[in-house]
Design a protein that fits this description.
Helices cover 25% and strands 33% of the residues. By secondary structure, it is of the alpha/beta class. It has an eight-stranded mixed β-sheet. The protein has a five-stranded mixed β-sheet with strand order 2-3-4-5-6, with no helix packed on it. Strands 7-8 form a two-stranded antiparallel ribbon. It is globular and about 55 Å long.
Length: 288
């Protein structure tokens, strides 16, 4: 497991009963997590008085119950990177802290490349990877279909002192964008993607990860430069194995470019128990 254990502004304090107790800066949140199938050992202290508690509804969805002291938005940092945190309607906060292991990895890759690097970040959400890549000196193209998330990414870049960095922000369907980049002949040295398990496009197009990830990966290969630096796939799809990502990257990237593949779970340390909380999987291809 790749464990994001270098945080100072974030912490999984405790887990149990399908929930996690987290510290985001100076604020405590209590949120659901389907991976946590063990009971709470001692539901006292901060468990009883979080600043925000997301309650699931029996009919689906849920809602936050906030304390009066919790701001609408606040800031946390990871090294030189800074991010706005804001609890959203569907239990999220705008940041997946386990992704810090990927931020550190890609920053090292970009800084040690010894050449200009162009990065394409697809399904780019609030821009954690975009900010990391830009901070390392890359030219970044950030693509997400949600206008609000693209603005959030811009805010995070500005917060990290990267308002003048070479970042291109695109609000668009990622599949159509990749097709247009193919026609334009534009190429990238690195691609990051965090594809959803399921989704619908603006014209009713259906995306199913199991059916569409391989052809989409093939499409992305056509806009890679002759000497790509890395390709990263993140997935939060339940039941998808790291070995599946390994096989996909072997059939596509390694067969064409050689290089090295590393896949595995991604997680966060739990302070109270000393265990690690699994949060998703990653697949990395990198040049030798």
């Amino acid at each position: 497991m790749y464990v994001a254990d270098q945080w100072r502004d974030y912490e999984v304090i405790d887990t149990g009963g399908g929930e996690k107790l987290e510290r985001w800066g100076s604020h405590i949140l209590r949120r659901p997590d389907p991976q946590i199938i063990w009971p709470i050992a001692d539901e006292s202290g901060l468990w009883k008085k979080p600043d925000g508690h997301y309650h699931r509804s029996n009919s689906g969805g849920g809602q936050w119950v906030m304390s009066s002291g919790l701001p609408e938005r606040w800031t946390i940092s990871y090294g030189e990177l800074s991010f706005h945190i804001k609890p959203t309607n569907f239990k999220h906060t705008g940041l997946f802290p386990e992704q810090a292991v990927n931020w550190s990895w890609m920053m090292d890759k970009i800084r040690s490349a010894g050449r200009p690097i162009r990065v394409l970040n697809l399904f780019a959400y609030s821009g954690g990877a975009t900010v990391a890549a830009a901070a390392a000196g890359a030219d970044v193209c950030h693509v997400d279909a949600a206008k609000g998330m693209v603005q959030w990414a811009k805010d995070n870049a500005q917060l990290s002192g990267l308002e003048s960095a070479p970042i291109r922000y695109i609000t668009d369907d990622v599949f159509k964008f990749v097709q247009r980049e193919q026609r334009r002949g534009r190429q990238y040295d690195a691609i990051i993607m965090d594809p959803p398990s399921y989704g619908r496009g603006p014209n009713g197009e259906t995306w199913k990860l199991e059916e569409n990830l391989f052809p989409f990966l093939q499409s992305c290969m056509s806009i890679l430069s002759d000497k790509p630096l890395f390709l990263l796939i993140n997935s939060y799809t339940t039941g998808l194995s790291p070995s599946v990502l390994h096989n996909l990257l072997h059939i596509t990237m390694k067969s064409k470019f050689g290089g090295e593949i590393n896949c595995g779970e991604i997680g966060l340390p739990i302070t109270k128990s000393g265990l690690n909380l699994p949060c998703g999987i990653l697949g990395r291809w990198e040049s030798n």
